[in-house]
Known about the structure:
The complex is a heterodimer.
Chain A: E1 9-13, H1 20-36, E2 41-43, H2 46-51, H3 54-62, E3 65-69, H4 75-83, E4 89-92, H5 93-100, H6 113-134, E5 157-159, E6 165-173, E7 176-181, H7 183-198, H8 206-219, H9 227-246
Parallel strand pairs in A: 1-2, 1-3, 3-4
Antiparallel strand pairs in A: 5-6, 6-7
Chain B: E1 8-12, H1 19-35, E2 40-42, H2 45-49, H3 53-61, E3 64-68, H4 74-81, E4 86-91, H5 92-98, H6 112-137
Parallel strand pairs in B: 1-2, 1-3, 3-4
Helix pairs in contact in B: 1-6
Amino acid sequence: MSEMMEKKVGIVSCSGEELAEGTVARLAALKVLNELRPRDTVTICLPLFLAGGAGDRAFAKLHPTITVDGCFLCCAARATEKYSNKPAASLVVNDLVSEAGLGKPEGRRRLNAAGHEAVKLTADRMAALVDQALGKSKEALGLGQAAQAGSEGEQREATCSCGSGVVVTKMNIAGQNVELIALPLIFRHFRQEQRAAGGPSRKLDQQTADNIFEAVKIYNSVPTELEPAYRETVLEEYARFCEKEKS
Amino acid sequence: MSAAGKTMVVVPCSGIGKPFGTVSREAAYELCENLRPQDTRLVALAKLVLGDETARDLIAKHPAITIDGCKQMCAAKMVKQSGGTVAHEIAVLDVFRRHKDLKPEGIAELNEAGLKLARVLAEEVSGKLAINEGDNHV
Lengths: 247, 138
């Protein structure tokens, strides 16, 4: 198994095709994803999220998300809360523009100058929220991440056709090579629960083991006849995860 | 006017991660703003799915043209799930297969080939609407 993925923030952008503010939201999200915080963020594709992408929903359940909406309808924030978890933070372009006293963004297809200013403002604010969600200070960010884009190590991401991603772990179970999604995220979630309940040395109890495997089954297709083998392998992997966290 | 002599709604994919999603939006804008402004109306996918009444009402009353950027076909799926009728289901990839010289690049800003691909797609859809109009007048 490859190294565990660093904690990341999911960016869910409004897709508001009807409004210039929707374009501002999308472009600001892309700026954060590609330029400002490439190592700390992934996008969660809103339409696939809504249309039932299990991987996207899994990510949002286990990672903090920041939503950015173009207008008061707040589709991205509402969708995230409705289908997954409450966002860690939410931005609305209209509000930011108003607070900053910028001109009105115009041109949903080609933004005007005010629109580009709004993109920068929204992206900067979003990047700060990413840092906050990850508990990173400006100093900890060091030289900046733009130069580190694309150096994410060996972890492979299951990119949906729209480009969002959840970690995939390759495993051999009962002689078959299989891919399971979201294992590190699930493991981290349960590890934190264990710590809160009884400290890091607390042994894995039956109930937690059952819950871990049930969570894995939510996000992965597990053949009924192979459940015992999957369970054994997943729990072994969880034990390795805990050992690695100790060291 | 379009096929049934009514306005048609255009629902593009909202994909943010790949150039094909951007092409779908650009094609929808081209269709609604330049080629068929009188008989098309753009509807945002997210509003439709979240149950926005105006969006659902439009989908219920008018046939839809969906333009999807990937094989997940979110726009087409969601229109159908919302009880709408998809009159024309377009996949950007299918159009690209016929125009392989127009490889789209850039998400925030499409390259010239991507913009051209969007125009070609929009013109193809507009052409289909024109044929339907002709049928209606026979």
